[in-house]
Amino acid sequence: MNRILFVCHGNICRSPMAEFVMKHLVKEAGLQDHFFIESAATSTEEIGNSVYPPARRKLAEHGIACQGKTARQLTRADYGRFDLLVGMDSWNIRNMKTICGGDPEGKIVMLMNFTKRPGDVADPWYTRDFEATWRDVLEGCQALLSQITHK
Predict the structure, then answer these.
(1) Which helix (H) or strand (E) covers residue 127, if one does?
(2) What was the pLDDT predicted at 151?
(3) Which class would CATH give 2-149?
(4) C-alpha–C-alpha distance, residues 76 and 103, integer Å
(5) Exposed, middle or buried: residue 89 (CB in 10 Å: 0-12, 13-18, 19+)?
(6) pTM
(7) Helix or strand run (H / E) with residue 99
């Protein structure tokens, strides 16, 4: 079982987009029985809130639903529950390591580092460019899935 947790600041835009894109890709590949995928926040400010409407709409444009998802915060226990904790930007990575008490097993990674364009996933909270975020998330999830399935 591949257990993946996607993480961003608030868990209402980038990480839930990654969660549901990855679930979609895994299902398309017929591998849903081999994956457990969730998302979480490094902050507390959005806990309990639904996926941000423009992020929900962007997913829906591509036939991906995210109903029922509400923001939750990353916990230290998540480090033991997941094989990979995938952050959306370098600030998330720093906060993830703090919350998890470090990264002794090398499980905390950045999504775009699986692609040919390492770096941060565009943050639509500030840019309002949900299309750029969609492209980053899709490319990152496709590359991550490819790496996992070709091991």
Answers:
(1) helix 124-127
(2) 66
(3) alpha beta
(4) 11
(5) buried
(6) 0.97
(7) helix 90-100
Q: Residue 85 has which token pair?
A: 């904790």
Say if CB 58 and CB 134 are below 8 A apart.
Answer: yes
Structure tokens at 1: 């079982």
pLDDT tens sequence across 42-88: 999 999 999 999 999 999 999 999 999 999 999 999 999 999 999 99
Domain boundaries defined on the chain: 2-149
Which active-site residues does the annotation give? 8, 14, 123
- Tell me what the mean pLDDT of segment 111-139 comes to: 96
Written in H, E and C, the secondary structure of 13-67 is CHHHHHHHHHHHHHHHCCCHHHEEEEEEECCCCCCCCECCHHHHHHHHHCCCCCC
Which pair of structure tokens corresponds to residue 141?
A: 């999830």
Amino acid at position 34, single letter: H
Asked if residue 120 lies in contact with residue 93, where contact means CB atoms within 8 angstroms, the answer is: no
